[in-house]
Amino acid sequence: MNLKSKLLSGLKHKVFMPIVTVLLLLVVVGFTWLEVTKADVEFTHNGETETVVTRAQTVEALLEELEIQLGNDDYLSHELTTEITSDMSIEYKEAVEVVVNDDAQTTTYMTTADTVGEFLQEEAITLQSHDVLSVDEAAAIEDKLTLDINRAVKVTVTDGTNESEEVYTTEETVKDLLDEAAIELSELDRVEPSVDEAIKEDMAISVIRVEEVTDVVEEAVAFSTVRRNDSSITKGKEEVIEAGSNGLIEKRYTVVMENGKEVSRELESEEVKKEASQRIVAVGTKVIQQAPSRGTSSRKAVSGKTITMEATAYNWNCATCDGRGLTATGYNLKANPDGVIAVDPSVIPLGTRVYVEGYGYAVARDTGGAIKGNKIDLHMRSVSAARQFGRRTVKLTIVE
Fold first, then answer.
1. Secondary-structure class of domain 301-398 per CATH
2. CATH class of 96-150
3. Which CATH number is 214-283 given?
4. Domain 153-208 has CATH 2.60.40
């Protein structure tokens, strides 16, 4: 190598070394700057925590670096302008959707609460003691979570004769409420309103306890009176041959009771336990003939009060009669058709012996719906005889 070459080689070496030194210095300075400006940040995202090494200067720059877009309802522990420092803890939580069905009203919320209880408190949703929430308040909040709130209403329940009771319920129908309260119904029981009725606030529900019972009643049957002519007894006198006795009939009723009170009664059957015994009265027909006194007529004189009457005639076998032939006093007209008249008892008492002009002696033994005041009805042996008599004015004398 010649001198010139040596000189050039030495010159190059002298120039290269300072350049290398400068470059190395820049590298050291740059590395040192990078190490000084970076920070270790504890970053919690939706409950998961990791350490992030960042050279971001602010929280907002860190989120951009992590490609996180902050929503309006999201939670961030620091302001976006907060400067990043080493060992800093930052929490970020994305808001999730919660749907609340509060009875008939549906509302959608965005929340970052951890539990259902925190969410309800955050949104000021208050539950009363009898309200029912579909999810436990300690349950964690999840995205698209649906909460159903069934609000309890107050109703009044009256079970039969028991005292009314106020009940808070979330059931939908009357039947559901009765099932919830373990109120059982028999086949005959009924409910007002009906079991299918929807529950409403302050509704009054009545359970009517219905039962059917059989009631057996014994009733007396009054005896009838039969009068028979007796020629051995003086006319105008009567004697009781048999006193008569009442009969007995047993009646069975089906009785419907509601809450212990009778509401209806229906006769199902009846049975005669004892037949009534007739009262038999002997009526005297014997006429005592008296010898006429000198200078007097052989016909007995009739004395007493005389009344002018409007008279008609009838027979027991008429079309409107009951066919039994018994008078209002029980006198048998079939057996004893003569000497019987129907009267108004307020004018002529029953049992009074009278003499009727054109008819003869008679006893007031019968009454009639049309016999009012000074009217009498004369019993004839036949219907034709009664028709022939027609209507006429007669003199009636009460026999003394």
1. mainly beta
2. alpha beta
3. 2.20.230.10
4. no
State the virtual CA torsion across 120, 124, 130, 133 in degrees, nearest 10: -20
Positions in the chain short of pLDDT 50: 22, 27-35, 290-301
CATH T-level fold of 39-93: Ubiquitin-like (UB roll) (3.10.20)
Distances (CA, A) of 378 to 14, 78, 363, 369, 389: 179, 126, 10, 14, 9
Cα three-residue angle 346-352-358, rounded to 5 degrees: 100
First to last CA, the chain: 202
pLDDT digits (tens, 9 = 90+) for 162-216: 999 999 999 989 999 999 899 999 999 999 999 999 999 999 999 999 999 999 9
CA distance 373 to 375: 6
Least Cα distance to 131 among 146, 152, 147, 148 occurs for: 152
Nearest to 266 by CA among 251, 283, 286, 247: 251
Q: How many CB atoms lie within 10 A of CB 178?
A: 19
What are the tens digits of pLDDT across the range 88-137?
999 999 999 999 999 889 999 999 999 999 999 989 999 988 899 989 99
Q: Are the C-beta atoms of 378 and 389 separated by less than 8 Å?
A: yes
As annotated, the residues of the chain forming the CATH 2.40.40.10 domain(s) are 301-398
